[in-house]
Amino acid sequence: MTTTADAVTCTQLAYAFGETKAVDGLDLTVREGEVFGLLGPNGAGKTTAIRCITTLLPVPSGMVRVFGHDAAGERMGVRRLLGYVPQQLSADANLTGRENVSLFARVFDVPRRERAARVSQALAAVDLTGAADRLAGTYSGGMVRRLELAQALVSAPRLLILDEPTIGLDPIARTSVWEHITAVRAATGMTVLVTTHYMDEADQYCDRVGLMHHGRVRALGTPAELRRGLGERRGAAATDPLPTLEDVFRDVAGSGLDDQSGDFRDVRSTRRTAQRVG
Ligand SMILES: Nc1ncnc2c1ncn2[C@@H]1O[C@H](COP(=O)(O)OP(=O)(O)O)[C@@H](O)[C@H]1O
Ligand SMILES: [Mg+2]
Question: What is the pTM for the complete model shown?
Answer without folding.
Answer: 0.89
